[in-house]
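Repro:
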Amino acid sequence: MSDKELASTGRDGHICLNYIDFLAASCKKRWRFVDAIYGVMPIFGMVTKNSPDLPGAPSERLKALALQIISTQVSDEINIARLITLAEQQHIERFEILLPYPLSEKQLETIREEYVKPLSLEQHDDRLTIAMPALSH
Protein backbone atom coordinates (compact mmCIF):
# COMPACT_ATOMS: atom_id res chain seq x y z
CA MET A 1 0.00 0.00 0.00
CA SER A 2 1.56 3.28 -1.02
CA ASP A 3 1.71 6.41 1.11
CA LYS A 4 -0.36 8.18 -1.53
CA GLU A 5 -3.26 5.80 -0.86
CA LEU A 6 -2.99 6.20 2.92
CA ALA A 7 -2.86 9.96 2.99
CA SER A 8 -2.48 12.98 0.82
CA THR A 9 -1.04 16.38 1.58
CA GLY A 10 -2.15 19.31 -0.53
CA ARG A 11 -0.11 22.37 -1.48
CA ASP A 12 -1.44 24.23 1.54
CA GLY A 13 -0.26 21.49 3.91
CA HIS A 14 -3.79 20.11 4.25
CA ILE A 15 -3.64 16.48 5.41
CA CYS A 16 -6.28 13.90 4.51
CA LEU A 17 -5.91 10.36 5.88
CA ASN A 18 -7.69 7.56 4.05
CA TYR A 19 -9.07 5.46 6.91
CA ILE A 20 -10.31 2.75 4.54
CA ASP A 21 -6.79 2.12 3.25
CA PHE A 22 -5.35 2.12 6.79
CA LEU A 23 -7.82 -0.63 7.71
CA ALA A 24 -6.92 -2.58 4.57
CA ALA A 25 -3.22 -2.25 5.41
CA SER A 26 -3.95 -3.41 8.95
CA CYS A 27 -5.67 -6.53 7.61
CA LYS A 28 -2.68 -7.36 5.40
CA LYS A 29 -0.11 -6.63 8.08
CA ARG A 30 2.01 -9.51 9.36
CA TRP A 31 1.38 -9.24 13.07
CA ARG A 32 4.01 -9.94 15.66
CA PHE A 33 2.99 -10.49 19.27
CA VAL A 34 3.94 -6.96 20.28
CA ASP A 35 1.92 -5.53 17.34
CA ALA A 36 -1.13 -7.44 18.54
CA ILE A 37 -0.70 -6.00 22.03
CA TYR A 38 -0.38 -2.44 20.64
CA GLY A 39 -3.44 -2.88 18.44
CA VAL A 40 -5.80 -4.55 20.88
CA MET A 41 -5.00 -3.52 24.44
CA PRO A 42 -6.29 0.00 25.14
CA ILE A 43 -3.54 0.79 27.65
CA PHE A 44 -0.88 -0.11 25.08
CA GLY A 45 -2.80 1.27 22.10
CA MET A 46 -0.87 4.51 21.89
CA VAL A 47 2.56 2.99 22.42
CA THR A 48 4.38 3.43 19.15
CA LYS A 49 7.78 2.21 18.19
CA ASN A 50 10.14 5.11 17.68
CA SER A 51 12.41 4.46 14.79
CA PRO A 52 15.19 6.55 13.32
CA ASP A 53 13.87 5.77 9.83
CA LEU A 54 10.55 7.60 10.38
CA PRO A 55 10.05 10.43 7.87
CA GLY A 56 10.87 13.96 9.01
CA ALA A 57 7.65 15.84 8.12
CA PRO A 58 4.88 15.64 10.75
CA SER A 59 2.33 14.45 8.17
CA GLU A 60 4.65 11.64 7.04
CA ARG A 61 5.37 10.60 10.65
CA LEU A 62 1.63 10.61 11.32
CA LYS A 63 1.04 8.17 8.45
CA ALA A 64 3.89 5.89 9.55
CA LEU A 65 2.79 5.87 13.20
CA ALA A 66 -0.88 5.41 12.28
CA LEU A 67 0.00 2.12 10.63
CA GLN A 68 1.21 0.93 14.04
CA ILE A 69 -1.97 1.77 15.95
CA ILE A 70 -4.88 1.33 13.54
CA SER A 71 -6.48 -2.02 14.26
CA THR A 72 -9.51 -3.87 12.96
CA GLN A 73 -9.76 -5.35 16.47
CA VAL A 74 -11.09 -2.10 18.00
CA SER A 75 -13.96 0.21 17.08
CA ASP A 76 -13.72 2.94 14.48
CA GLU A 77 -14.27 5.48 17.25
CA ILE A 78 -11.23 4.25 19.19
CA ASN A 79 -9.10 4.16 16.04
CA ILE A 80 -10.11 7.73 15.18
CA ALA A 81 -9.43 8.94 18.74
CA ARG A 82 -5.99 7.30 18.47
CA LEU A 83 -5.36 9.09 15.15
CA ILE A 84 -6.31 12.40 16.77
CA THR A 85 -3.90 11.74 19.64
CA LEU A 86 -1.12 10.91 17.17
CA ALA A 87 -1.83 14.10 15.23
CA GLU A 88 -1.62 16.11 18.44
CA GLN A 89 1.73 14.47 19.27
CA GLN A 90 2.99 15.45 15.80
CA HIS A 91 1.74 19.04 16.33
CA ILE A 92 -0.82 18.74 13.55
CA GLU A 93 -3.66 21.12 14.37
CA ARG A 94 -6.09 20.23 11.58
CA PHE A 95 -6.59 17.27 9.28
CA GLU A 96 -9.27 15.20 7.57
CA ILE A 97 -10.10 11.54 7.63
CA LEU A 98 -11.82 9.95 4.65
CA LEU A 99 -14.23 7.37 6.09
CA PRO A 100 -16.10 4.45 4.51
CA TYR A 101 -19.40 5.98 5.72
CA PRO A 102 -20.63 9.05 7.61
CA LEU A 103 -20.49 8.69 11.39
CA SER A 104 -23.57 9.00 13.59
CA GLU A 105 -23.84 11.70 16.27
CA LYS A 106 -23.37 8.95 18.87
CA GLN A 107 -20.10 7.86 17.22
CA LEU A 108 -18.88 11.46 17.10
CA GLU A 109 -19.68 11.86 20.80
CA THR A 110 -17.79 8.63 21.57
CA ILE A 111 -14.74 10.03 19.75
CA ARG A 112 -14.97 13.22 21.82
CA GLU A 113 -15.18 11.15 25.01
CA GLU A 114 -12.24 8.93 24.01
CA TYR A 115 -10.02 11.89 23.11
CA VAL A 116 -11.09 13.83 26.25
CA LYS A 117 -9.54 17.20 25.24
CA PRO A 118 -11.56 19.88 23.42
CA LEU A 119 -11.69 19.50 19.65
CA SER A 120 -13.86 20.34 16.69
CA LEU A 121 -15.32 17.51 14.61
CA GLU A 122 -17.04 18.55 11.38
CA GLN A 123 -18.51 15.94 9.11
CA HIS A 124 -19.28 16.42 5.43
CA ASP A 125 -20.59 13.17 3.99
CA ASP A 126 -17.75 10.66 4.41
CA ARG A 127 -15.08 13.24 5.37
CA LEU A 128 -14.39 14.07 9.00
CA THR A 129 -12.46 17.28 9.65
CA ILE A 130 -10.66 17.45 12.97
CA ALA A 131 -9.36 20.69 14.49
CA MET A 132 -7.66 20.92 17.86
CA PRO A 133 -8.09 24.47 19.15
CA ALA A 134 -5.73 23.87 22.08
CA LEU A 135 -2.86 23.65 19.57
CA SER A 136 -3.80 26.82 17.72
CA HIS A 137 -1.42 29.75 18.00
